[in-house]
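note to self — DONT lose this again. spent like an hour looking for the file last time. sequence + predicted structure for the chain T wanted, 159 res
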Amino acid sequence: MTNLHHLAEEAVKTALEAGRTVATAESLTAGMVAAVLADTAGASGMLQGGVVAYQNTVKSGVLKVSRELLDAVGSVDGDVAAAMADGARTVLGADIGIATTGVAGPEEHDGKPVGTVFIGIATAGGTTYAEYGFSGNRAEIRGQACGAALESLLAALSS
């Protein structure tokens, strides 16, 4: 966990220095990214809020992810992650949206193997995503996804 806290401290510090705000949209990590950020002193100056969108109805209803996209590709997809990040950014009024979706196991989901993770990033410049393949148990995969989300957030803050 200490690595996560170090990444969160860096992200909070960088966001505060840049005067940028952040919102999260989390499926796989179920609020872990927002919680780790909020554990960091100064987070109230940069963290707008977060949406735990475990179900597709929340992804579409709250985050405005296209129902057609979800029906076509399922929830574990890069374009879904990017759309979730954009939804969080828009709905929560932040400069940057960060999203997580993936398969923590023990079984595959939407035809994707355990450990498949997508991190979505949305900024004023557009949306993107990164794909990862992690291994381990549910907790380990979720922790690795949280770390990847924080690293992606840091990269977006630094650009």
